[in-house]
Amino acid sequence: MDKRFNLTTGKLGEDIAKKYLESKGYKIIEQNYKTKYGEIDLVAKKRNELIFVEVRTKKGENFGTPEETIDKKKLRKLWGNTKAYAAWKKWQGPYRIDAVCLVLKYDNAVERINHYESII
Amino acid sequence: MLVKILSVANRGLETIGVDVEINIAGRGLPGFEIVGLPDKAVDESKERVRAAILSSGVEFPAKKITVNLAPADVPKEGSFYDLPIALGILKSVLQFEVPEKSLFFGELSLDGHLRHTKGSFLLALFAKEKGFKNLFVPKDSANEAAAIKGIKVYPIENLFQLVSYFSGKTSIDSAVYKEPKDRLPVPAEFDMKEILGQEQAKRAAEIAAAGGHNIIMVGSPGSGKTMLARALPGILPPLGEEESLEVTKIHSLSGNIPPGGSLITCRQFRAPHHTASPVGLIGGGTRPHPGEVSLAHHGVLFLDEFNEFPRQVMEAMRQPLEDGYLTISRSKETVKYPANFMLVASANPCPCGYSDHPKKNCVCTPRQIRKYQKRISGPILDRIDLHINIQPVDVEEFSENQKASEFLHSSKEIRKRVILGRKRQEKRFKAESIKSNAQMKNSHIKKYCSLTKETEQLLRQASLKFQLSARSYMKMIKVARTIADLEGVPEITVSHMAEALQYRPKIYEEV
């Protein structure tokens, strides 16, 4: 797989994740929101709880699972992101961080999609 | 979902119960975490458990798994938590019942098989004491555990077998204890009859074996000191039932019991090289483990070339020689190990080795000899009951006498006498906590070793003449008691005392 296509794969994954979450009753309020720590893939809302979603997409699992790519460093970054967002929006209610891990086939069809709640 | 499986943790020879709690959380990223002060081997069990479960044909749950080893403040070490952890995960996936009052123990191999794991004997003792009914241990470690009666020990071959047993598909027969094959006689490197001449030394070895006395042999090179020591296991009495349990405990803890092994019934013979470190000999480490002195518990610790041992190592043996146990204190924990051993030491009289040789000339200066002999300190020598000088054998002399001495001094014959002597001691000390004459404290001597007037007079005269210490005075009585026991005489007579006095601390006294 060529590195050039990683960006399009990621974008594709985010769109699939967005539709998937919407079908589960989440209301997506932001996509690719930028803070000084980086980017938040998706910000959703459900039952008055703010949910920050990190989307990980892989084409095939031969070189590791998408779950494995979320390491300590990324978790720290996510945590900073969410706090920055909550402060910026003056959000007082509860919030959590979720991950959606996607594996695509080589023809971009979805092989599996997993939603992990509250990963920190 | 929360699952609880019971296992143990060892602190020295003490065993405590450990709850292995496995929680498979619905939320969170998939992961595998072990908490409760695991050491490296316990932490690495994650990888073994994961592979073993996959090899058993079960999908490893892609969820957040947390394992807690409670109580959380006791450090856990060893590889035996593999089985309880794996079983806990399998239980929450496959939903089977685990019988109550069961303990689990064993190291997994990546293909799901259970490997021989050290310490299953201590587990069985703990189970018996705390009223557990079932033990699930690796097949190779099952016999060791089955030595303890009153509990069911299930020998497990692999994870798959255990799971199908719990789901009621197969049955597992509990292990029946198999007696050790090498019960009698103890194999020794040499037979006593192979040793030419040295009648006095053989007699001293017999007395030492019968009473459990410490012995030091000094002589020129090639006179047979090492050979005599190596022949010693052949004349030692077998271990008593209680002693056997104590010895097995120590050896199970240090992993010296082979796969399929059973109780240790013969006395251990340990011969560490003189480059041994203090920790190796005495025991220690951050989590103190037993050293050579404890591994030689109720057996023989043979220190060849005694002078060559570092001073620090020698002096460290003072406490165990006197008390029969030792307490090792480290910042993390303090452990008490038994170390009731019989010390057999051998040394040369001087650096060249020939200072007491009748024909060869010694080439050492007096200063060299003094320096060499000073390496063994007075306090250590004072704790040794039997001191013998071994003279080189005259080649012409022994060829004639050999046949006559063969019958009298084969290891088999000596061992018979030693066992008889030891039995008399055991009978005498039935009400006491000791087993042999060497273990007698002053109060025991007062109670069991009454001396006749003449005997006491002889001892008093000798101790004045040879400047015996108070400790040596008592040791002489103990040795005389053993000599009387070998003969089967209830009273210590003058002749017994006279023989005992031959073995007084005299080594190196002339220089």
Give structural notes.
The complex is a heterodimer of chains A (120) and B (511). Chain A has 120 residues and is an alpha+beta fold. Chain A has a single domain (3-116), classed as Trna Endonuclease, Chain: A, domain 1 (3-Layer(aba) Sandwich). Chain A starts with 5 loop residues before the first helix and ends with a strand. Chain A is built from 2 helices and 5 strands, in the order H-E-E-E-H-E-E. In chain A, 27% of the residues are buried. With 511 residues, chain B is α/β, with parallel strands linked by helices. Chain B has 2 domains: 2-166, Ribosomal Protein S5, domain 2, CATH 3.30.230.10; 192-426, Rossmann fold, CATH 3.40.50. Chain B has helices spanning 40-43, 45-55, 82-94, 120-130, 142-146, 159-166, 199-211, 225-231, 241-253, 278-282, 292-295, 311-316, 318-323, 366-373, 378-382, 395-408, 411-428, 442-448, 453-466, 470-487, 494-502, and strands at residues 2-11, 14-25, 31-35, 64-70, 102-104, 107-108, 114-115, 134-138, 152-156, 215-219, 269-270, 283-284, 289-290, 300-303, 325-329, 334-338, 342-347, 386-390. In chain B, the strands form 6 sheets. Chain B has a 5-stranded parallel β-sheet. A 4-stranded mixed β-sheet of chain B has the order 1-2-4-3. A 3-stranded parallel β-sheet of chain B has the order 5-8-9, with helices on both faces. In chain B, helix 2 crosses helix 3 (82-94) and helix 20 crosses helix 21 (494-502). The longest helix of chain B has 18 residues, at 411-428.
